[in-house]
Amino acid sequence: MTVGDAPQLAALVKSVLDAEESNRMDGSDVNTIVRQHVEEAVYAAVTPDVDMVLASIINHEARLP
Amino acid sequence: MRFRFAADDAHIRGLRIIPEIPDIRLARLEGNNGIGKTLAARLLQLVSCEMPFAALPRAWESLVELLGVVYITIDGLREGQVIVKLDSALWRGRSQADCAENPGEATLAGVPVEWARLRSLIQVRRIAGDEGLAETLGRTIRERALEADAVRRRIGDVVEIWSHRLDALRKLSEGCTQGQLIDLREEDRQAIEELDQVQDSLIAAESREAAWVETSSIMHRVREFVEHHGGLMEVYSKSLERHENASEVIQQLESDLARAGANMALNEGRRAEVSRWARLLELRETAHTRARLQENQVLGYLGLHERPKSTDLRSRSADTRQAVTDAEAQLRTADLAFTIRQAAAGVENALAGLQGPAQQETIADLDRPISAKSLLTGVQRRRRYLEGIPRPGEALLLSRRISEMRDQLRVLDLIPELVATTDRKAQNVVEAEEKLSALMGFTGAQKIEREATQKALAHQRGLMVSGSAEAVAALARLFALRGAPAPELGLPATTIDENSEEQDEADLMAAEGELATAVQLILRAPETVQAEAQEWLSANLVRLAELGMLRPPAISLDRLDEARQEVMLVWDSARSEEADAKDALKTLEDRLKATEDRRAAAAAALNNGRLSLATAIRDLLHNSEWEGLRPAVATALGAEGLPATSLIWSEEGWLDIDSEGLNNEAVETKVAFVLEGLATLAEQIEDSAATIRDGWALTTAYLENETVRLARRLADAESGRLTASTMASASNVVLRAWTESEISYILSSTTLRNQLFDGADAVSFDLEGLAVQWKTSDGTRRRRPLEAFSSGQQVFAYTRAKLETLRSLRASSEVVVVFLDEFGAFVARDRFSELMRYVQDDVLGEIADQVVVMLPTSSSDQPRTLREEIDGVFERPGYVVTSAEPRRAE
């Protein structure tokens, strides 16, 4: 089952993660660009190779975090 | 859809399943309990990835044990016939969720088909009429939990696959981070700095130690001088006086003897003979005196007052010879300093000429690899240490000592011959005396007188010789106090022949004169000796002042006793300071060794760090394993101004970077930055993916928990496998709001609002209190717990609500088939025709493509109107099973 089959749940999980993130107490910062790329990748019907995810982030940012 | 079931062996084990469900849009399936109607519906649910036994763990265990192999044939799909093979033997030991995910094998139009594909073609659901509102809601939430769990599993698989890859990248990239590189460089720089400081301190300490050694040495000689000079001068003066007094008496006695001989009346022949022997006697006496002087001087030089025994002589010779050998070896080491300095200078120049990376190249491999730069540092340090070696005065004193010992050896070797010569010359004198006495023809009285004179003469000669020897010995000790070589009795090389008759008076005079002069050369006046001592003392005090390590003591040669106490104090201070300086030097030498070790360790660690950077970048850019990532790595390097295409590292550093305006350290830092960035990115990706997965797990766990709270009967045998331990209150709020919203939506359906909630505009649900809230048309707020909804009318409403929840299935599946089971109570409560109207009007074509209503066998007790009502619902009677043996109704 892909997330495309459960869009309502995907929205729910996104809200959960947003709530968790806003509630983080350890002071760490989530790289939103990385998270967006990763979300797109893991929610895709055919999950891409992680090298492609890495490359897409680097190319998107043109620099490293 | 037409469903056929073939489970030939199941009935043997007491499990029964109906053979067929006809392809009727609204079908009626009527039969006795136990003939396998419900099991058929549940197996079709399983095919649809729904676990119908989630709340029935024991029923599931029984099914696994008894079912065996079942073939399900599905006809009516546009894509072709589906045949499913289920084998319960393959379900043993597997989780319910896993079995639902993959229950067996399936083919579509004769070709194996993925379960996901099949489930996109057909979905089957069963709705039980005996479920209450709480169970209905719980089932809805559970549907969501299963969906969330399926996504969680899928993402979990992705995270696991990614983790291996990202872990490899992270390990490759984390060999040496920027921070570590900076720390390693700093450690290396500090080690070098400390090494330089220690070396400087060591040089200063060596200089200080050398100054204190010399100061202490001078003070030692000054102390010895102050202690002994006065006494030795007194001995010297007195022995010198004895020597001179005896010389005067000898001259007088010799004159007396000459006069007595001249008065004798002798014929011409005898006179000539007497004259000859008298001259020979004088010659022999002179020779004897000379021999005794030499012997006494030698004995005095060796500190002896009498002739040594031959055994003592041999022992002393052997000891001295060994001491010479040892001292010569010590001197050779000191002498080699110059040679080593020369060689080191050559090596140092060559090493200093090396440029850049060549300095880091290993040039020597001892117990550890030594770089050219390290070797250069070591050679420079050694050169500085060897500068000034041999230290001032040290080698000179050693040379003097060796010279003295060699002289002693030479003298020791001479003693036997000297003794024999002295004795032989004494015997010659006696013979000459006797011969002369016989030739003179002395009377008895004359003879006695002459012998007395000769005896006195011999005594005085003895006094003169002993006085001379003591004076020479005292003088030698005075010289030794000043560290100067003892004066030797410089006897004339041209000697007389005491037995030669050809020697004339002039020869005799000359020989005696030379002897006297030689003695006088040594036995100088005490005033001269004092002047030499004063000069030596002054020179040493000046040198002490030059060294500047302490304030020289005030010493007057005339009042040495008064200076003694101050000299002792200063000498004690010098010795103490010398010991401290040696300790400080030793401490610094130890520290130097420790610092060199630290420097070597720091250099090795830095080199390892650099090597790991180079290895990582080489692998990323050239190893086929990372081929997919290469363009991205090149982009990242490029963003830092690093040319990926020519970024090649050798042991001498990064090659061909000069043209880019970079140096090795800059490249190294940028490479570390890029690699660390990759490692960080890998970590963030893995973290993000895991966070997303955990979000789904959190949601799944929450929904499962709430499913159980709503309807305990729906508790999954596996519930609890996903814990919400990480669930934060913030997540709880979101999940609760969503769940309440979902349930409120279901409760707000028109049917339920009209039938159960007074036609309210909106209905909400309190998940925590498990209560429904709504506002009536007159504005009254109502709140009622879930368990309060249990009447027949309410159950009908739930059923409609449950059917409404399946509306979304049509979006994900081409065909939806719904089984309505356990609706006997509806029949009993006279609500069946109402339900069927709803199914015909609102469900068929909207929610489901086919509805199968399962009813118990008609009873004769049922009123005729009810039978007619049921029959009237269905276009055709459908498939009716009235006994264990199925039969076609039409």
Walk me through the structure.
The complex is a heterodimer of chains A (65) and B (890). Chain A is mostly helical and 65 residues long. Chain A has one domain (3-61). Helices cover 62% and strands 0% of the residues of chain A. Chain A is built from three helices and no strands. Chain A has helices at residues 7-22, 32-43, 50-61. The longest helix of chain A has 16 residues, at 7-22. The radius of gyration of chain A is 13 Å and the shape is flat. In chain A, 34% of the residues are buried. Chain B has 890 residues and is an alpha+beta fold. Chain B has three domains: 1-132 and 792-890; 168-185 and 604-680, no CATH class; 186-582, no CATH class. A six-stranded antiparallel beta sheet of chain B has the order 2-1-4-5-6-7, with helices on one face. In chain B, β14 and β15 form a beta hairpin. In chain B, α7 (268-301) packs parallel to α12 and α8 packs across α9. The longest helix of chain B has 85 residues, at 178-262. Chain B starts with a strand and ends in a 10-residue tail after the last strand. Classes of the chains: A mainly alpha (65), B alpha+beta (890).
Helical stretch tally of chain B: 23
- What percent of the residues of chain B sit in helical stretches (DSSP H or I)? 55-70%
Binned strand content of chain B = 5-15%
Number of domains of chain A: 1
Largest interface: A-B, 41 and 50 residues
Q: How do the strands and helices of this protein lay out in sequence?
A:
The complex is a heterodimer of chains A (65) and B (890).
Chain A: H1 7-22, H2 32-43, H3 50-61
Chain B: E1 2-6, E2 20-21, E3 26-31, H1 37-47, H2 57-66, E4 69-75, E5 82-87, H3 96-101, E6 104-108, E7 111-112, H4 115-121, E8 122-128, H5 133-173, H6 178-262, H7 268-301, H8 310-352, E9 362-365, E10 369-371, H9 372-386, H10 394-440, H11 444-481, H12 505-522, H13 526-547, H14 560-622, H15 630-639, E11 648-650, E12 653-655, H16 664-710, H17 729-747, H18 750-756, E13 763-766, E14 771-775, E15 781-785, H19 792-805, H20 809-812, E16 815-821, H21 824-828, H22 832-843, E17 850-856, H23 864-873, E18 879-880
Parallel strand pairs in B: 3-17, 3-18, 8-16, 16-17
Antiparallel strand pairs in B: 1-2, 1-4, 4-5, 5-6, 6-7, 9-10, 11-12, 13-14, 14-15
Helix pairs in contact in B: 5-16, 5-19, 6-11, 6-13, 6-14, 7-10, 7-11, 7-12, 8-9, 8-10, 14-16, 16-17, 18-19
